[in-house]
Amino acid sequence: MYQFIKNKILNVNKYSKRSSIIVYYILRFLVVTCMILEFIRGDLNNAILCLISLILFFIPLFLKRKFKIELPNILEIIILLFIFSAEILGEINNFYITIPYWDTILHTINGFLAAGVGLSLVDLLNKNFTSIKLSPIFICIVSFCFSMTIGVFWEFYEYLSDNSPLQTDMQKDRLITKIDSILLNDSKKNIPLKIDNIKNTEIYYLDENHNLNKITIKNGYLDIGLNDTIKDLFVNFLGALSFNIFGYFYFSNKEKFKFLQHFILKRQELPD
After folding, report:
1. What angle (nearest 5°) sits at the alpha carbon of residue 216, between those of residues 210 and 217?
2. Are residues 164 and 179 in the same domain?
3. Most CB within 10 Å of its CB: which of 12, 99, 112, 206?
4. Domain end among 73, 95, 117
5. Residue 29: which domain range?
6. HEC readout, 86-145
7. Is the pTM of this model over 0.70?
8. What's the average pLDDT block by block, 10 residues per block, for the chain (272 residues)?
9. In degrees, to the nearest 5, what angle opens at C-alpha 107 toward C-alphas 180 and 124?
């Protein structure tokens, strides 16, 4: 066990810079501490989230070792902080509820970072082929589509998780005050019934003992995740679009848009 841990530490030091190493170990310590506390509290779901976070922390190191990729130091730190912010702070410490726009900020950053990864992958392939040279606009379009695809698959994951036996609530609900619904139109015609200024909604349900219970939702109607999904995809769109606007100009003037290099992967022969 000691030798295994020692080898892991050496591998991290071998492929990462000092600042990212410090962030890496601080976050791992915090996650391990959190996982122990969740085990003590008997919350197995949160403990599993901590374990997943520890596994995700290996992604940057895996990319660098497996594919001989040079990961910019700033990008590596942002990825580590992003994982910690989403899983530990967001899910376990309830930041998604207590901190306004926490989820929106993370999805925007995700769109930006995923676009950077997409642009990097296409650019690396473009540099390896002499017979075909892709234009900057084409690379940016592929990068944008790559980022949006990542965002869509994440929303698939949220939906499947919410409808799995785990019964999570990753697609956060929100209150709305109006609906337009064909289902509520008794005429059975393709004409939506418009309801405005909804004040309260009453939900009746049977509990485990088949007793009838009622919940009153004040100040609106409960939207089950639809608005959250569209909002997440829209801010992912903004993140991806903003990166690729800069990315397009980066190819024509790399010196002026030099800051973008902190978010672009490069191929580099690293020591074994």
Report:
1. 130
2. no
3. 112
4. 95
5. 1-95
6. HHHHHHHCCHHHHCCCHHHHHHHHHHHHHHHHHHHHHHHHHHHCCCCCCCHHHHHHHHHH
7. yes
8. 46 63 92 94 89 89 77 89 93 90 94 93 79 86 96 91 78 87 85 90 90 91 88 96 94 87 76 48
9. 130
